[in-house]
């Protein structure tokens, strides 16, 4: 089933009776060439690129719930490539390029909106840091513009520029950044993988990983044992729990990150705006709701819900940055379980068990990394060689200290990244 403007018009005029299922609902086979544990954005993208780029079609994606029911459906939908350090910079640049061709690649509308992101600064030191970051971005081949306060006033007139505690000194604009529809990204990759023969198996929880003579041979699930030559773990906040099934202890903590959305409003925010002093970020959805978030809840948890003190903290940051938001009514909130690494950067690497691969530690960067993560993880699983943009995401950097990427300069403390 293909999509086109003509097809949408025809179905709209005929009661939308011609649409079929977007993917099959197969029973698991007893044996696969590769298994991906986790039916979120990264797992589905990995399966898609294994099939489309490497010709592997005897693949299964195992999801304990429903496809896209985890972090890919619990985030603030921001897409950007404004990272500073080598390793992160080239990876997210690669991922943004994939985003820009994703709808044509998948023949699916993921509602990518390159509305631009502005990161604000509130001191001379922060402005200097944005200058360095912007130059690093441009050296990487990405766009970056340093804006003065006067330029920002014309672009974002609704901000409080004269706040006594956090006056706005300027900002860094990346015009190619923006947002995408989170669940549509999962559905697009799921549909694309299914069309290439990948089995997407829902309600199939992995309960064990089978290892013989130092090599993975399959998994145990709630729907029976499944053998496989290769197994990839892409389960975000559950990474430590799944890796423990293979006897691994990961350098990861799981924390809850809350997000919020207001009632639908008329268009008022045209960009993604990040508040440099409050770890607050906001954009407006196509439905009109203001979508925003802030800091982690600062304690380890597997609960996909937040707490009131952090909600109050985020609302305080919102009111400090843009007092007009106080007139909007909060519609709902949700929490995603973030797999936080000590240096704030991800892991895409082989493990010490032959045939077992790990995709984890995405911290705040998981959604924006979806196509790049899937592309690089698929390359690793298919060739046993790291993909160049993700070559620094090695697991052993936490053991020997070589190659650590402290993107935020906060040290090796999981809950600060």
Descriptive notes:
- The chain is of the alpha/beta class and 417 residues long.
- The chain folds into two domains: 26-77 and 182-251 and 343-416, FAD/NAD(P)-binding domain, CATH 3.50.50; 113-176 and 254-340, 2-Layer Sandwich (D-Amino Acid Oxidase, Chain A, domain 2), CATH 3.30.9.
- The chain is 28% helix and 25% strand.
- It has eleven helices and 18 strands.
- The strands form three sheets. Strands 1, 2, 8, 9, 10, 11, 17 and 18 form an eight-stranded mixed β-sheet that branches. An eight-stranded mixed β-sheet has the order 5-6-4-13-14-15-12-16. The chain has a two-stranded antiparallel ribbon with strand order 3-7.
- Helix 2 links the parallel strand 1 (31-37) and strand 2.
- It is globular.
- The protein starts with a helix and ends in a 17-residue tail after the last helix.
How are the SSEs ordered, and which strands pair?
Blueprint: H1 5-13, E1 31-37, H2 41-54, E2 59-62, E3 78-79, H3 88-100, H4 102-106, E4 117-121, H5 124-140, E5 145-147, H6 149-155, E6 170-174, E7 178-179, H7 182-195, E8 199-201, E9 206-212, E10 215-221, E11 224-233, H8 239-244, E12 253-262, E13 272-275, E14 280-284, E15 290-300, H9 308-321, E16 330-340, E17 347-350, E18 356-360, H10 370-383, H11 397-400
Parallel strand pairs: 1-2, 1-11, 2-8, 4-13, 11-18
Antiparallel strand pairs: 3-7, 4-6, 5-6, 9-10, 10-11, 12-15, 12-16, 13-14, 14-15, 17-18
Helix pairs in contact: 2-7, 2-10, 3-10
